[in-house]
Amino acid sequence: MKNLLNGRFTRFLRGLDKTKDKYLITAPKTATSNRKVQLPEVMTKQIEEYFAYKKQNNISSQFLFGGDSPIPQRTYQRYFSKYTHDAGLKNIRIHDLRHSHASMLIHLNVPITVISKRLGHSSVKMTLEKYSHCYSDGENIAVSAIDEVICEKKRAINVP
C-alpha cells in the first residue's frame, strides 16, 4: 500500500473567492481531518493512470476531477445516484460509503485505533460511539477464540 500520491489531497475546496476569481483551498474543520490515507496498490495505480491520462490530454490537474475548476458536489451526487440506481442498489449518499468502509474494516478485524485514525476521528471513543453496533457478534468471537485455545492446548498435551 502507498500513501495517496504523497498526500496530494490533504486539503479540500471550501468556496470561491469572488474578489480574486480563484478557489480557496483551506484546512479541514479539525486537525485530525488533515491526514494521509493509504490506499491499496491497485487504487493508487488507477489514480496514477488517471493523472497520466489528464497530462496526455492537456487537462489541468489543479483539481482531481474537473481540471481548472472543481465539479460541483451536486453533480457527483447526481451521477452516483444514477449509477447506484442502474445497478439496482438503494439510494445512498456518497458519504454513506465512508460508513460502509468503516463497517467493512470492523468486520475484517482491523484494530479500532487504526479505523479511528483512518476516519480522522479525534478519539477512539468517537469511533466506538458511531460504530459499536458493528461489534454485535463480539461475544461469539470471544467464546470461539477461548474454545479454540482450550482445544489446541488439549491436543498439545494429548488430553481426550
Structure description:
With about 160 residues, this protein is mainly alpha-helical. The chain has a domain at about 95-160. It is built from six helices and four strands; from the N terminus they run E-E-E-E-H-H-H-H-H-H. It has helices at about 40-55, 75-85, 95-105, 110-120, 125-130, 140-155; strands at about 1-5, 10-15, 20-25, 40. It has a two-stranded antiparallel sheet. It has a two-stranded antiparallel sheet with strand order 2-3. Strand 2 (about 10-15) and strand 3 (about 20-25) form a beta hairpin. Helix 4 (about 110-120) crosses helix 5 (about 125-130). The longest helix has 19 residues, at about 140-155. The termini are far apart. Residues about 1-15 have low confidence and may be disordered.
Element layout with pairings:
Blueprint (H helix, E strand, L loop, with lengths): L1 E2 L8 E6 L4 E5 L11 E2 L1 H16 L16 H14 L9 H12 L4 H8 L4 H8 L6 H19 L4
Antiparallel strand pairs: 1-4, 2-3
Helix pairs in contact: 4-5
Rounded to the nearest angstrom, the distance between the terminal CA atoms is 45 Å
Helical residues, percent? 40-55%
SSE class: mainly alpha
Question: Would you report the number of β strands?
Answer: 4
Major sheet details: 2 strands, antiparallel
Radius of gyration: 22 Å
Unreliable residue stretches: 1-14
Order of helices and strands: EEEEHHHHHH
Shape: elongated
Range of strand content: 5-15%
Can you list the strand order of the major beta sheet?
1-4
- Report the average pLDDT across residues: 81
Our count of helices gives 6
